[in-house]
Specification:
The structure holds 2 protein chains of 2 kinds. Chain A is an alpha+beta fold. Helices cover about 30% and strands about 25% of the residues of chain A. In chain A, helix 7 packs across helix 8. Classes of the chains: A alpha+beta, B alpha+beta. At the A-B interface, helix 1, helix 18 and strand 28 of A face helix 1, helix 2, helix 3, helix 4 and helix 5 of B.
Chain lengths: ~800, ~170
């Protein structure tokens, strides 16, 4: 695509003027008359019986309006979950607490400081119970997390291929046979893909206002799924969907954390209805790690069998996935997203089996990548180990085992899913043949010659995103549990106003992805109306057609395609009007430079102003044509999309301290067609920082009693600017064939491609010492220990 | 307690509870909601403002500590409708995504450039180490600050990467 056209070109973001001047509106900025503030009393225990709650001291404080416990809200039922497998969360702890930080009571008061004071004054007595925290122990069922559940294992996902037990048995037989051969090698890695605390810099916030006269809730929430939240509130309170208006204004980072229905979103609505005032809750950073979902949390063994010349004959991924205490939105479905990509871009027989296990910890759910970074991590780690074992170049091993480009479109992966388009060797070759990659290898060798520990890591990846086909409704790809039976399709409405400006209304819930800019480009390209005359509205459950929200790198592929089709409909109608005004044939009408003209007669023109005016003056329209100039489209994709890419990193390890420095990072990502290269690159940058953050710094650590030891930003280490290099980005373009824009999605790719790239680099650096594996995060102590252990073993 | 200060060139007097944090005073009392709260522990820097010419994290400073001070928040940075070069740089070089850390990040960059008008990439990276961004991976924030630094020195900023970048196949 050219970089000068409006579609495929760099356009400065339309979002930015407000955000760089401090006038962007986030939920905590919203103040309504008479507004009250909520604060929560939270459990200090991971597992305990609540023996009493005494709110009298809190209630005696002037300005405290109410203290609510489960007895006040039990009738509303639990927090709704889209995949309610396991134990769903009660609105407030019901007799027992099941993780540290679980909300036990909610206080509502006239100001936020007072609400906090009052929460501290609520006395709760607990009888501590043993906590099940260790994932492997939990999986044995020796002690139960929930007495009323049969097992701590809530769900087992198995594939190879998915949904075909006979074929799966055949796969397992093939893998076992390959292992038994004496001319093959077997490589196995048990690794932890640690829990992460996603840490959007805006903590979640919600403000609910019940208007009894209108019989209607207005709710501002920092959510990625405004329509689902409207449905969930309606269902919980027994009102209708159109009795709830959810607005997600500016959302300060999402990453999946705000892709959940939260108890506080329901509870402030309840309090507002009870007290007759708007009620706001803003999560504090101290609360956030245990009140907003966490991500990852797998322990798995990746085993690979192949010949000595690089032909991989089989791969197994068997693991445990930590679900935490309660299931929220997708919880047990997240590992399934890993199943989707368990065989990566490869053709070898693959068997994957993942147990979803409950523990007395905070819920896990979708964090950027959600299942896919975990699965790709194991695959690309063990392939590297195999390449090392047989002494083959890691790029060559990968190339040799790819699903070939001529298998597309609609190649079927070994785990049983149809993949839209792909050319994996193209991306890998673009990487390894780049000057940057050659320089990395040369630099590594130079540093090694100086006696330094230096390494180059490589990883390739495939991702599945752009969810998703309507047909996956039965697998939970719907907001049906929130009273909005729907599929994960996309929607867009394009309206040309009487003054010929355009309003585009979409059902997405972005949190920095630049939808106003990208969608303006899609519509400007179709209509030939300048970008600055187009305004894009999103994050509003009432203004927009039903929307699924923003997650799973789906918005451009699905909602973007819907908007593209809506714009096409508007253009078709505008062409009819122009043809009528120009007394020309509709087929000859073309659009450019702010209006329509007759092909071959560029002097026969009519402006958009004129077309719009006539559209709103129906007596001037062709006979039988309806007035107005707007269209809505629903796009239901035939498949998800499958982006892919190849990443490389150069690291230096300080052998004395274990300190890892990331020196260079190069990517080749292929997300199909690119609408705005600047925004796409920005998404990759951010994804990389989060994947590298997992590799090097971030880890949610619980002690044996279930206390979160990394509950503040002083303990949970996020990458800073000084920890990262500038990134070197390249791309290949393999358009998707399942949507009209040919786009795939780029929100999560950077994360999916990066963690193992860094770990592979560190293992490469430590190879001379005999280190074969180091678990993430690669903090100095752990790396130093790995070096010591390797030395001790020599 | 009675406090008076000058915020974005405007004299302000108020009676505040002694424990009121400066950030809450700015946001809730003065309605200057451009300054954000990210962590309440001085770590993330979303709340960074300029107090008497130096950057300060307003989430761990009491409003009463700012009594008599001269304060600039993000809302006070643009002059006469003209964006500050740092604001311009963030827009020109895509130095923001969700925008939540942005006001604090911009104020830190302003502070950095007032002390070091020609910082190297490494100096920029260390200079904004006290501000966490979760969206951009800092790459374009560094470019934005380089852009602003050039502008403020009266030089032509380097072209954007997307103007020079080679796109493979």
């Amino acid at each position: 695509m050219s970089t000068t056209s409006v579609l495929g070109g760099v356009v400065k973001r339309r979002e930015d003027p407000a955000l760089i001047q401090g006038t962007g509106l986030y939920v905590d900025d919203v103040k309504l008359p008479g507004m009250l503030y909520a604060a929560f009393v939270r459990s200090p225990f991971a597992h305990a019986r609540i023996t009493s709650i005494d709110a009298s001291a809190a209630l005696a404080m002037e300005g405290v309006e109410a203290v609510y416990t489960i007895d006040d809200v039990r009738h509303l039922g639990p927090v709704l979950a889209q995949v309610p497998i396991g134990k769903v969360r009660p609105l407030l702890a019901d007799g027992v607490v099941n993780h540290v930080g679980e909300a036990v009571a909610m206080v509502v008061a006239k100001d936020r400081y007072l609400a906090r004071d009052a929460a501290d004054a609520v006395e709760v007595d607990y009888e501590p119970l043993p906590a099940v925290v260790d994932l492997k122990e939990a999986a044995t069922d020796q002690r139960k997390v929930h007495d009323d559940l049969e097992s701590n294992i809530l769900m087992t996902w198995e594939a190879g291929p998915f949904g075909d037990p006979d074929a799966m048995a055949e796969t397992r037989r093939k893998i076992d046979e390959a292992k038994a051969r004496d001319d093959t090698v077997v490589v196995s890695i048990e690794a932890v893909n640690q829990r992460l605390i996603g840490t959007a810099i805006e903590p979640r916030a919600v403000l609910a206002d019940w208007n009894p006269g209108y019989g209607r809730f207005t709710v501002y929430s920092s959510t990625q799924i405004p329509h689902a939240l409207a449905g969930a509130i309606a269902k919980t309170f027994g009102v209708t969907y159109n009795d709830v208006h959810v607005v997600a204004p500016e959302v300060g980072g999402g990453f999946g954390l705000k892709l959940n229905i939260y108890n506080d979103e329901i509870l402030v609505a309840f309090a507002s209805q009870k007290l007759g005032h708007p009620v706001k809750y803003t999560e504090s950073r101290r609360e956030s790690p245990n009140s907003t979902i966490q991500g990852r949390g797998w322990i798995a063994t990746a085993t690979l069998v192949g010949t000595r010349d690089g032909e991989i004959l089989g791969y197994e991924l068997h693991g445990l996935c930590d679900m935490g205490a309660y299931s929220q939105n997708f919880t047990v479905a997240i590992p399934f997203l890993g199943v989707f990509v368990a065989s990566g871009q490869y053709k070898f027989p693959t068997h994957v089996k993942l147990d979803c296990v409950a523990t007395h910890t905070m819920t896990t759910d979708a964090y950027r990548g959600a299942g896919r970074p975990e699965a790709i991590y194991y695959l690309e780690r063990v392939i590297d180990a195999y390449a090392r074992k047989i002494g083959m170049d890691p790029a060559e091993v990968r190339r040799k085992n790819y699903i070939p480009a001529d298998a597309f479109p609609a190649a079927i992966s070994p785990v049983g899913f149809a993949m839209d388009t792909g050319d994996y060797a193209k991306a890998l070759d673009a990487l390894v043949e780049s000057d940057g990659y050659r320089e990395m290898l040369a630099e590594r060798d130079r540093m090694r010659a100086e006696g330094k520990l230096a390494g180059v890591g490589l990883s390739t990846y495939v991702e599945v995103c752009g969810f998703g086909p309507s047909g996956l409704v039965d697998l939970g790809f719907s907001w049906s549990e929130y009273g909005a039976p729907s599929a994960f399709s996309g929607s867009g409405l394009v309206r040309v106003n009487p003054d010929s400006t355009v309003t585009v209304i979409i059902g997405t819930g972005p949190s920095g992805q630049g939808h106003q800019t990208t969608w303006s480009q899609i519509v400007a390209d179709q209509l030939g109306i300048p970008l600055e005359r187009i305004r894009v509205i999103h994050g509003d459950s009432e203004e927009s057609p039903f929307g699924v929200g923003t997650f799973g790198s789906r918005s451009a592929a699905v909602d973007g395609s819907a908007t593209f089709e809506a714009a096409q409909k508007v253009r078709a109608k505008a062409a009819k009007i122009a043809a009528h005004l120009l007394e020309a044939s509709e087929e000859d009408i073309q659009f450019a430079d702010g209006g329509a003209f007759v092909a071959g007669s560029p002097d026969q023109t009519v402006s958009w102003e004129e077309i719009a005016t006539v559209a709103y003056q129906p007596h001037r329209l062709p006979e039988g044509m309806e007035g107005g100039l707007e269209a809505h489209a629903i796009f239901s994709p035939a498949n998800a999309t499958w982006p892919f890419g190849a990443h490389a990193a150069l690291v230096e390890v300080d052998g004395d301290t274990g300190d890892v420095r990331l020196l260079r990072y190069i990517t080749v990502d292929d997300c199909g067609n690119v609408i705005n290269p600047m925004i796409v690159d920005g998404q990759i940058h951010g994804g990389l920082a989060q994947g590298i953050g997992q590799a090097m710094f971030e880890e949610a650590v619980y002690d044996a009693d279930g206390n979160l030891l990394t509950g503040s930003l002083l303990d949970y280490v996020l990458p800073t600017a000084a920890d990262l290099p500038s990134f070197e980005l390249h791309r290949t373009v393999t358009p998707s064939d399942i949507n009209p824009l040919g786009v795939k999605g780029i929100g999560e790719a950077g994360t999916i491609g990066s963690a193992q790239t860094v770990v592979n680099a560190v293992v490469d650096a430590l190879e001379p010492l005999g280190v074969e594996h180091v678990d993430m995060p690669l903090r100095p102590k752990r790396v130093w220990q790995a070096i010591q252990d390797a030395k001790g073993g020599n | 307690m009675q406090i008076r200060m000058n915020v974005n060139g405007r004299a302000v007097t108020a009676d505040v509870e002694p424990r009121t944090l400066l950030v809450h005073f700015l946001r809730d009392d003065l309605g200057l909601t451009g300054t954000h709260i990210g962590c309440e522990t001085s770590y993330c820097g979303a709340c960074t403002v300029i107090v008497d010419g130096r950057t300060a994290k307003s989430c761990t400073m009491l409003a009463v500590q700012a009594d008599g001070a001269e304060i600039t928040t993000i809302e006070g940075l643009a002059a006469d409708g003209e964006l500050h070069p740092v604001q311009e740089g963030f827009w020109e070089r895509h130095g923001l995504q969700c925008g939540y850390c942005t006001p604090g990040m911009i104020m830190s960059a302003v502070g950095l450039l007032s002390e070091n008008p020609d910082p190297s990439e490494d100096e920029i990276r260390h200079g904004i180490e006290g501000n966490i961004c979760r969206c951009t991976g800092y790459h374009n924030i560094v470019r934005a600050i380089e852009y602003a630094a050039a502008k403020m020195r009266g030089e032509e900023p380097a072209p954007a990467e997307w103007e020079t970048q080679e796109v493979t196949a």
